[in-house]
Amino acid sequence: MVTQPQRVETLSHAQRERLAYIDFRLYFFGEIGRPDLIERFGVAPAGATRDLALYREIAPQNILFDGSHKVYRIGQAFSPLFEHAPQRVLSALAHGFGDGLNGPARPLQPLLPCESPATLSIPRMDVLAPVCRAIHAMRPLAIRYHSMTSGETERVIVPFALVDTGLRWHVRAFDRKRGEFRDFVLTRIEAPALLDEAPQAHERPDHDIQWTRIVELEFVPHPRLERPEIIERDYGMQGGSLRVWVRAAVAGYMLLRWSVDCSPDHRLTDEQYRLWLADPLALYGVENAKLAPGYQAPSGAKKR
Fold this sequence. Notes:
Layout: H1 4-9, H2 13-29, E1 31-32, H3 34-41, H4 45-58, E2 63-66, E3 71-74, H5 86-95, H6 125-137, E4 141-147, E5 151-164, E6 169-175, E7 180-185, E8 189-194, H7 209-212, E9 214-221, H8 228-234, E10 242-247, H9 248-257, E11 260-261, E12 275-277
Parallel strand pairs: 11-12
Antiparallel strand pairs: 1-3, 2-3, 4-5, 4-8, 5-6, 6-7, 9-10, 9-12
Helix pairs in contact: 2-4, 3-4
Protein name: Putative DNA-binding transcriptional regulator YafY
InterPro entries: CapW-like, CapW_CTD, CBASS_pafABC_assoc_protein, WHD_CapW, WYL_dom
Domain DNA-binding transcriptional repressor CapW C-terminal dimerisation: 214-280
């Protein structure tokens, strides 16, 4: 007997995408009609009807036809046919589905009323595109860079990854000027130009110790809070704590974004600090630990 997942796997990529959209609309909106498929994928009415019939054939318990309103509604025994990643779902609900054609004439719209903090630091596309090409092609990139300490300088970097800190985007790269791996804020880059050469062995990401090192961090509800069980629920904690594993190169940014009190004596008492880093020594050797709220370098540690 062919199971639902096996049946789905035999379909074309385009068919799976349309069925996943039907699954999504039923799961999060409780209904879907032919116009939804026609608008999203540009299929003909007959094609939309076939997709709905196919979904109904594969997962009959998930979908019921409401003839009076000519829409399909979620079945009482609904069980998602596809796995819907929470981050993608939330992004789609807040910003709509992207199809590469959005622009001033066709802006993306949220699927439900949703408000998100405004993004204040947005990279220019004529900078982001060549940076992405350099990462993909594994090529050095000549840039002009505006630094808080050095002002405007010309540099050659070897980029290998983009990083979203939650407040801004930067690129992780080897900096030939400094001879070390560093973070470069995308909005501070100008005139990027790919160089037709391969990076040296020591410029490759496997030589970036901060990037390859994985740090284990344990978060607990902040000791000042009277109802720690609520924080445990907020973060899905097991046994009163939450363990995460993160690259050392991004640990400081993450702790700053999540407002984690990293002081050894949980001294930060402002309202935004709901989590405490149970073992601040876990940040030993993490170069950007100075970004972590309340962090204190262990006595005897060398300062960079």
